[in-house]
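# nightly structure sweep
# worker-07 picked up a monomer target from the shared queue
# config: single-sequence mode, recycle default, output format = structure tokens
# input follows
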Amino acid sequence: QVQLVESGGGLVQAGGSLRLSCADSGRTLSAYNMGWFRQAPGKEREFVAAIKRSGGSTLYADSVKGRFTISRDNAKNTVYLQMLSLKPEDTAVYYCAASTGIFTSLHVKVGTYNYWGQGTQVTVSS
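# output follows
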């Protein structure tokens, strides 16, 4: 059973930065394509970024391109989301997710992923 645990969320002022982490103590995350999604109150869960198993390919939502970077350290069994120049509209619960399939453009879809973490709150004040 994959058990994803996110960390690194918190309260930050607009223009600030945070780095989220996602780890699985029970398995090797290198076996999975990984994604980050977010969900603000009253809104649907939306795609943020995704990374291939090998780390060789990434996808980003237009709203975060140039500000967020997804990366992974398979030796540490951890996936990261570096968030710079944060805006109040980035406020949401951020979830990491794991996919067993082939890495395609469908990794922007919630339904592509097999496993989800519990989420970590990110709040950006204006």
